[in-house]
Amino acid sequence: MGNLVFVAKETVADETRVAASVETVKKMKGLGFDIVVEAGAGAPSRIRDGEYEAIGARVGSAQDAAQADVILKVRRPTADEIAGYKSGAIVIAIMDPYGNEAALVDMARAGLTSFAMELMPRITRAQSMDVLSSQANLAGYQAVIEAAAVYDRALPMMMTAAGTVPAAKVFVMGAGVAGLQAIATARRLGAQVSATDVRPAAKEQVASLGAKFVAVEDEEFKAAETAGGYAKEMSKDYQAKQAALVAEHISKQDIVITTALIPGRLAPRLVSREMLKAMRSGAVAVDLAVERGGNIEGVEFGTVAHVEGVKVVGYPNMAGRIPASASALYAKNLVTFLETMVDKNTKNLGLNRADELIKATMLTDGGEVVHPNFVDPDQPTVNKGDL
C-alpha cells in the first residue's frame, strides 16, 4: 500500500475541527508518510497553512484526494467527496453510521476501506484513540461555559460590601465523561453542583468531584449495574420515583445540563416542559444530545430557545465550539490509530484485519459493508462487478 495521507478541509456546515495538527503531521512524517493538507483546513482551529508547510507537509486542493492512500477527516465524507477518492483508499473519520446506512453503501461501492473512530472499543490499549471520550470531555466543559454565557448572574458566591451574590445551583444529568467534566468545570467556577446517574458506581465519582448525588437509592438502585459496568433497565415503579425526585430537584436549580446520548437511538427525554416551568425565570438548560432529538422538551437545534421562561441551549457539536483544543485531541486520536496500521520496521502501510481495533471500527472493505452492526444479510450491499 502507498504512503500519501490527505487531510481534508471539512465541508459540513459549522464543522470547525480539522483531522491533523502540527504535532500529528510531524508524527506521520516520522512514520514514513507524505502529507497533503487541503488549503484552509486548519484555519478554524488556528492552524495556518504555513505551519503545516514548515514541517514538511504540502498544501494542496480537494483534487489531491484522488491520489491519497489514506484520507483523514472529522466527519463522514459526502457523496461528492467520495466521488473524488480512489478505490482502495483508507478513510478514517467520525462516521455517524447509525441511521446512515445508505452512506455506508456509497463508500462500499466506491471501494473505500472506511473506519469509524467512534466505534473504537473501550479497552486499555485503545484509550489514546477514544474520540468519544476526548470530545465528550471538551463538550462537558464547554456546556458549562455556554450556560454561564447566557445566565444573567454570576456563578460563584461573592461577598461584597454591597451585599452577597449567592452561588448558582447547577444540576448535571448523567455522570459519564461529559457529565463529570461539566461537574468539575462548574465546581471550578464556584457553583453549587449536584448530579444524577442511573449507575450506582457514579455516586462515588460524583462525590469525588465535590458534588451532591441525587437518586432514589433503594435496593433496586443498588443492584442496577451489571458485571460489565452497564446500567440495568429499571422497573416502571423505580422510574416514576426517580422522575418525581428529579422534577422536585430541578425546580430549585439555576442551570441544568443534560448529557444522555445513546448511539443509534433517539436521545431519552429527561426534562419536560412541566419541569422547566417549575424553574425560576431566566434559568438555563443545556442539551448535549440535541443532535439525536434532545433530552429536553422544547430544545431547538442550533440556537437558544426560550421554553417556559427557561433559556434552553441547543448547540450541536459542542466540542467544535472550541476547535483548537478539540482538533488537537482528535488529531492525536487519529494518528495513534493510524500508527497501528504501519509496520515499524518497513514503514509500510498494511491492515491486520485480525486486530481487534480494526475489526471493531471497520465499516466497509473490499466493496462491501463489513461491520456486523450494519450488514443486512438479506440484501447484498454491492454488486462487485460494478466496481
TrEMBL record:
<keyword id="KW-0521">NADP</keyword>
<dbReference type="InterPro" id="IPR036291">
    <property type="entry name" value="NAD(P)-bd_dom_sf"/>
</dbReference>
<comment type="function">
    <text>The transhydrogenation between NADH and NADP is coupled to respiration and ATP hydrolysis and functions as a proton pump across the membrane.</text>
</comment>
<dbReference type="InterPro" id="IPR008143">
    <property type="entry name" value="Ala_DH/PNT_CS2"/>
</dbReference>
<dbReference type="Pfam" id="PF01262">
    <property type="entry name" value="AlaDh_PNT_C"/>
</dbReference>
<keyword id="KW-1278">Translocase</keyword>
<dbReference type="InterPro" id="IPR007698">
    <property type="entry name" value="AlaDH/PNT_NAD(H)-bd"/>
</dbReference>
<protein>
    <recommendedName>
        <fullName>proton-translocating NAD(P)(+) transhydrogenase</fullName>
        <ecNumber>7.1.1.1</ecNumber>
    </recommendedName>
</protein>
<dbReference type="InterPro" id="IPR007886">
    <property type="entry name" value="AlaDH/PNT_N"/>
</dbReference>
<feature type="domain" description="Alanine dehydrogenase/pyridine nucleotide transhydrogenase N-terminal">
    <location>
        <begin position="6"/>
        <end position="139"/>
    </location>
</feature>
<comment type="similarity">
    <text>Belongs to the AlaDH/PNT family.</text>
</comment>
<keyword id="KW-0520">NAD</keyword>
<feature type="domain" description="Alanine dehydrogenase/pyridine nucleotide transhydrogenase NAD(H)-binding">
    <location>
        <begin position="148"/>
        <end position="314"/>
    </location>
</feature>
<keyword id="KW-0560">Oxidoreductase</keyword>
<keyword id="KW-0547">Nucleotide-binding</keyword>
<dbReference type="GO" id="GO:0016491">
    <property type="term" value="F:oxidoreductase activity"/>
</dbReference>
<dbReference type="Pfam" id="PF05222">
    <property type="entry name" value="AlaDh_PNT_N"/>
</dbReference>
